[in-house]
């Protein structure tokens, strides 16, 4: 059945092979992840000069490090001499420099080439020119967002526009003062599913009544299948008996200081293309960063952020973490259930979206457009 033959309440999804084909994944790496702003590292994970973290963005390994001047900087994690991978660890601390394990070219925390065997006999080698290749970096919401493009797109017109279009304005997220919050818990999920399945799942709530009993208890309107993302500016209201965004609806922590009465008993969910999900609730913020590694594998790092005093005084965050951790497990299990079906002949033409999922069609249109894969 072609799209034009579908009943009017249904619209088509992308075809199955777009979730499995390595050439399409490579196209997405090139046209999406290596071009757009990518939320890579929580700034506070690298508090001291010399702290570093490596992340995979598209087909590149990127090194993010705290410099002596206190700024975060990002570089391609590749030695300029003969191309060895500079840092092989995912995270760590260097005293002063990064030294390549192959022939010992040595780079400062600002990326400059500071030493190499026999470098003094090569006075014509410019230390900046042969320093590490810089990657654009911008901090927002307490995270370092990186962009591999030579000329990055406007941050305001991409990342912040996604937030604005969802919430109506940027103040609605500014109230949570996300960059002032501290990390209460981080859980990393290794999901055997294509990144698009994870985004699509996050964008809809048609599945909420079936797979999220705890979440639906806290947010009764989710039982109707309309996600908070369906309406501009809408936050799902807590059920009447619900005291906090916790696994059993019991009390959470004090409402974050900037959050006003209009946001106090509500849940907001935002998708920032291409790899970030943000959840706002009165007493904490949950930020998911996806790292798509292959057509059928995505790492998701999820941070639960709380007011500084909650973390400093060692308050027990487990009941509030447990709610969304369970939601994550339920969601990722659903995505993993769908992934093998993407290569089935039953899904060759794709599936369908019901009206409460029609906004996912816009995501599909966007993916097609940016990858210019018109033949999908
Ligand atoms: S490849 Fe790094 S020093 Fe030779
Ligand atoms: Fe879900």
From TrEMBL:
Show the InterPro entries listed in the entry: Rieske_2Fe-2S, Rieske_2Fe-2S_sf, Ring_hydroxy_dOase_asu_C_dom, Rng_hydr_dOase-A
Ranges for the Rieske domain? 37-146
Give any Pfam family that matches.
Rieske
Q: Which UniProt keywords apply?
A: 2Fe-2S, Iron, Iron-sulfur, Metal-binding, Oxidoreductase
Tell me where on the tree of life, at the top rank, the source sits.
Bacteria
Cite the Gene3D superfamilies for this sequence.
Answer: Naphthalene 1,2-dioxygenase Alpha Subunit, Chain A, domain 1, Rieske [2Fe-2S] iron-sulphur domain
Query: PROSITE patterns of this UniProt entry?
Result: RIESKE
Which cofactor does this sequence's record say it needs?
Answer: Fe cation
Which named protein is this? (2Fe-2S) ferredoxin
